[in-house]
Specification:
Elements (H helix, E strand, L loop, with lengths): L22 E2 L11 H11 L13 H11 L6 E4 L1 H13 L5 E6 L3 H9 L3 E6 L8 H10 L2 E7 L11 H10 L3 E5 L20 E6 L12 E5 L1 H10 L7 H11 L2 H28 L5 E2 L6 E5 L3 H10 L2 E2 L1 E3 L2 E5 L3 H16 L1
Parallel strand pairs: 1-11, 3-4, 3-5, 5-6, 6-7
Antiparallel strand pairs: 2-8, 7-8, 9-10, 10-13, 12-13
Helix pairs in contact: 1-8, 2-8, 3-4, 5-6, 9-11
Bound molecules: pyridoxal-5'-phosphate (PLP).
The site of pyridoxal-5'-phosphate has 13 residues, from helix 3.
Amino acid sequence: MYRLNDKIKDLKPYDPVETRYRVHLDANESFLSLPAGILEEAKRELGEIAFNRYPDPAAKELCGAFAAHYGVEAEHVVAGNGSDELISVIFGAFLQKGEAFATVEPDFSMYAFNGALNEARHATIGKQADFTLDIDKIIETCHNEKVKLLIFSNPCNPTSLVSSKEEMRRLVRSVDALVVLDEAYMDFSSQSLMGEEDAFDNLILLRTCSKAFGMAALRLGFAVARKELADALRAVKSPYNVNTVSQTLGTIVLRHGDALEEARRELLASRDELYAGLEAAARRFPGRFRLLPGETNFAALLLPDGEQLYQFLGERGIAVRYTGGLVRVTCGRPPENELFLEELTAYLQN
Ligand SMILES: *Cc1c(COP(=O)(O)O)cnc(C)c1O
């Protein structure tokens, strides 16, 4: 009888939260879908697609639109079927048998997952008590453990904290490893190294259209790196990884920088409102929880009874995440934030 091997036999499919919740603040998605004007344009363009033909393997127009939006070189940009796919491609290609990768915990769980699937050695580095990065410790571990691939998110999911450009430059320069800087939330912050990729021979930046740009359904992620690394990624990814519908819609949306900026502002306003509500709750119930000073579209709460709060909210139809010892709450529409804050208050009153 055929038996699954050890590395996959206990794996379970990724399980997003069920639909019984009335408010979804668990996945860090945008609460805004695409604007009506853009959808009209998209419908017209969809009519022009040759559905019988394979997609453009280089996703040229899409990568060009991304590059133009951010002011980077088009040849530095590689498109993926979500940045999740790019993470998987990077682990499969840039790590050889038996080599080590490092993560800084807590962080996005897909890094460790992909490392395990590739049977790579995992060096885990802890964060400091306040969840910031200890850059010297990371550098030291990379040297001591002969780390070939260092991957972490900045701003960090789940802590919401951002590390400065200066710290990131120093880190990337100080290690021999390939550094994969996952900037999935950088549209909510200002510390991106994008545009500086040519200055580092060991840096790949990851960006996504799933968070600030409200296109999680299309699965669009991007890697940005100097030409040699970008070429290597293009050579190892599967040729038709981004389908033509996603390429077409993504290109249209990325060419509407004004609409993207408007959406970003609306998300930031919701974020500020959520944080203001949380700060007020922290003052009203001193010592019950700590709000981390985030620069993302979610808030990270630290409290000893985090899991209880997570369950309490779930029972009242509000989905949040409990991960890495933190309660992670995505900013939602204003009434969704209010519902969450009301239930949080109810919990803290007990
Ligand atoms: C959401 C998220 C991603 C995944 O983005 P996709 O492009 O939707 O695959 C990657 N990294 C981090 C840190 C995320 O939070």
